[in-house]
Design a protein that fits this description.
about 80 residues, mainly alpha
Length: about 80
């Protein structure tokens, strides 16, 4: 994982990261970071992660503000562990 992403993975900073960065990390997790998703997230969080990924289709506008916040939280947890 790129170092600049890991630096922004701190919980209090993660909420300020742009949607574009969140989406990039989400795609990375979906393609190459499946092990991190399995290890760092509960079964319910994994289900929610994949559901929100499909629902968004890459556009923040397809998600409610609450869903976007939840994606940021889940992705941050998946990266941090």
């Amino acid at each position: 994982m790129p170092l600049w992403i890991a630096r922004k993975a701190a919980p209090w900073i993660w909420r300020r990261v742009s949607w574009k960065t969140v989406w990039t990390v989400t795609l990375w997790l979906a393609q190459k970071g499946r092990e991190r998703v399995r290890t760092n997230l509960t079964e319910d969080e994994q289900t929610e992660f994949w559901g929100l990924l499909k629902k968004s289709r890459g556009k923040a506008g397809n998600l409610t503000a609450r869903d976007r916040t939840r994606v940021r939280d889940i992705v941050g947890k998946a990266i941090r562990g």
